[in-house]
Write a structure and sequence with these properties.
Layout: H1 3-13, H2 19-31, E1 35-38, E2 45-48, H3 62-67, H4 78-87, H5 100-103, H6 109-125, E3 140-144, E4 161-165, H7 166-180, H8 187-196
Antiparallel strand pairs: 1-2, 3-4
Helix pairs in contact: 7-8
Length: about 200
């Protein structure tokens, strides 16, 4: 048991309710009187005090509630499911990027081969070294300085590539998400951080 917990027990052990607190508890009991119910699972009568969130109790205990199937809400109608689905289609979806996925197709053999050539050329130019932290001999990745999805004409341009280690690449990617996915991330913080770290 931690020291803070022991101290809390010692302090609260001798703590007594003030008269104001006692009056408030008493008043609450008068607002919500004790009622008697019958458990839907074991059919035992039990007493409970309702509140505004739980005006009626169906079970005498948590054990009976979970034996009966746990907390299950009302099933949605087909109409409700369709309306809920429509809310997240297109611009209503937090991951919406302006219909980019409609133009996306499976990469052809030429594109795949071109990416391999571009990747190798970037590594050789940077001497297999992370351009941000100057690490060598670690796991490296070829990164597009200007994103692949936004700048199609620069996809296989070696001058648009840089070698980054896995950690630096992750930092740069998180910054790009905040800049280019404005409806999901705040752009102001990303722009401030990108100016502080211009090489990434």
């Amino acid at each position: 048991m931690c020291t803070v917990h022991v101290w809390y027990i010692r302090v609260m052990h001798n703590k007594r309710h003030t008269q104001e607190t006692k009056d408030r508890i008493s008043k609450t009991k008068r607002i919500y009187p004790t009622l008697t119910g019958v458990c839907s699972k074991c059919s035992i009568k039990f007493e409970y005090r309702p509140d505004k969130w739980h005006p009626v109790r169906k079970y005498c205990s948590a054990k009976c509630m979970y034996m009966a199937g746990g907390r299950k809400g009302s099933p949605l109608s087909k109409e409700s499911k369709i309306n809920l689905s429509k809310r997240y289609i297109g611009e209503g979806n937090p991951s919406w990027r302006g219909g980019v996925s409609k133009d996306r197709k499976r990469q052809s053999y030429e594109e795949q081969n071109g990416h391999k050539i571009w990747r190798k050329a970037v590594f050789e130019r940077d001497n297999y070294t992370c351009v941000n932290c100057n690490k060598k001999g670690c796991y490296i990745e070829a990164d597009h300085i200007k994103p692949w999805a936004r700048f199609k004409e620069l996809r296989f341009d070696v001058s648009n590539g840089q070698t980054l280690c896995k950690k630096c690449h992750g930092i740069k990617t998180s910054l790009e998400l905040r800049i280019y996915w404005k409806n999901q991330y705040g752009s102001s913080m990303a722009l401030r951080q990108s100016t502080e770290n211009p090489r990434i």
